[in-house]
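Quick entry between incubations.
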Amino acid sequence: MSLVVVGSMAFDAIETPFGKSDKIIGGAATYIAWSASNFATPIKQLSVVGGDFPKEELQMLEARGVVTDGVEIKENEKSFFWSGRYHLDMNTRDTLDTQLNVLANFNPVVPDSYQDCEFLMLGNLVPAVQNAVIDQMKQKPKLVVLDTMNFWMETAMADLEKVLSKVDVLMVNDSEARQLSAQYSLVKAAKVIMNMGPKYLIIKKGEHGALLFHNDEVFFAPALPLEDVFDPTGAGDTFAGGFIGHIAKTKDISFENMKTAIIVGSAMASFCVEKFGTTRLKEISKADIDARIQQFVQLVNFDIELV
Amino acid sequence: MSLVVVGSMAFDAIETPFGKSDKIIGGAATYIAWSASNFATPIKQLSVVGGDFPKEELQMLEARGVVTDGVEIKENEKSFFWSGRYHLDMNTRDTLDTQLNVLANFNPVVPDSYQDCEFLMLGNLVPAVQNAVIDQMKQKPKLVVLDTMNFWMETAMADLEKVLSKVDVLMVNDSEARQLSAQYSLVKAAKVIMNMGPKYLIIKKGEHGALLFHNDEVFFAPALPLEDVFDPTGAGDTFAGGFIGHIAKTKDISFENMKTAIIVGSAMASFCVEKFGTTRLKEISKADIDARIQQFVQLVNFDIELV
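Done. Structure below.
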């Protein structure tokens, strides 16, 4: 049984108030795989890249237990490219350039060897592609997690609604939750969205942490207060990787365990933003991760006695 | 030994997207006293009102254990009046009218019977007045807590700096912390502010919870996700009341106990916003409060085992 990760593997060029990157490795599935592979392997990666995507990047992931049989390489085409500039608040950004390239005609084919999929992580991608992957799965995975973004709500809402009806967990940020539900209150937004399909909803609030909703239950996860957020690119994907990695490791899809998985995801995201791109994710050790998770435990730990 | 609360007792007129109030009872010290008196009495109130302030409001507080010897009544003058309109996000507001009235020449005189002050809660008020109260205390209280706002940073910064150098705990919201420190990162802001005097800093983030800083330690308290925020007026004061009320009840000024006090303050603030003005604070029972605090425990509770 395995964890299947679907999403882009790509190039990014990033400008932040702190500096500017060259064309560096990015893509939702890249971040998810780097993050999740700290917790569970094998990870079966489903993506598409052009001939310009460095083979060493795939080899580094393989060395960590990421299977790349499902990563299609279109040698004569170019990889997806995104360029953006973050504002001073590091929460909002302008897209400077988007070149779909290989993503323009991505028709994912799920390899037979991926049919043992127990956990399916659908990284942010065209909803029709996410839907095609779900439909190719001969057995329903134990848990299907979906990440998406406002762009698809504006351009492919019908497809997105179709996918939403088939997933167990949805991850969006707070403004996307408001947009998707047409509700300002996040509690009301959660109710509307959970009626669209997902039984669990994770609302990511950046420096303000994350909320997990399920039926009438709610869990509030903190974000680690950081001195500097150097580059937020990929933080949401890294969060998703830590979340699904912990679930795949423990094979426990209870609400209680999802709470823990969110803490793990938040800890991973807190590393991601410390350097440009995937740099920090490639450096950290298990000891670093354990220490960071302990910081989260301390961050919210309090004793109360009602007398 | 006692808890002394300093601040305005006043009238407010409030407009929110949900409705409009008449001229209702407000003022920082009013909210603080209603909130804190659930946990510790006597509370010794230091304030000034005009002849128009209803005597029954003072009597209701007295019935809860609030001593009003230090509430000066200027029979021929009018109480402080504030009127404001909240935006849809319920986080930002426009001031429509401010009439200082009795607050214009408020020279507080600390009664001798207040000199046993163990805990001093300085509600949001002119910094020079807050300073005058500190200077009249013959013995340094065990803990001095200060609430303030952006208005004083813009109009009375020299006085505010003087007060800051004399207090133990400062409470401000996130934008005020950024303004006071000229730092965007709240972690950096906290360091700058703790160098101005306060050993403890509480940054209130509304629906995003609150942070407590002390030396290199940090605690992240959640806010209860609410379906509706009906009226945020007084939520910060109510938070302050719950915080200082718990500290005064337990007589424990450790960082660990301050964490608990912030949870108590957050629980109290979550009631305040449910109805206009002090309405909800006048209704709730100990059982309501205990149940709400339990919700906070559930909200952030998670198990993690590092293997």
